[in-house]
Amino acid sequence: MNREHVLQVLNTIYEKIFNEGQADLYPGFVSGPYIQHNPLFPDGLDDILGYIKQAGRIPCEVKRIAIDGDLAFVHVRYLEWAGQETAGVDIFRFDANGKIVEHWDVLQPVPKTANNANTMF
């Protein structure tokens, strides 16, 4: 897997698809069968693509990316996810052709106060 290609795909997902609302770009980065681990979505591209299109823009800031073999981990600050600021980690598995074939995510609302001075980002 080409690291530069993966970084380019991830940059496009977060900048063009999420921040700018260009959902129609997403299918070009995915290969089937697309395995989805978020329990709100079935496997396949149709439902997740429908959600991204319906949402329009999903404003976010990528805080860090780690790549390990065929997996890419993205720590994201979603500025407004379901009406609130949310910390997220997306995990993508890429095939040998550089296409996304599997996705996991973990999402946590950012609380108004914390018991420490650290941020979630």
Automatic annotation (TrEMBL):
Pfam families hit by this protein: SnoaL_2
Protein name: SnoaL-like domain-containing protein
InterPro entries according to UniProt: NTF2-like_dom_sf, SnoaL-like
SnoaL-like domain sequence ranges: 14-103
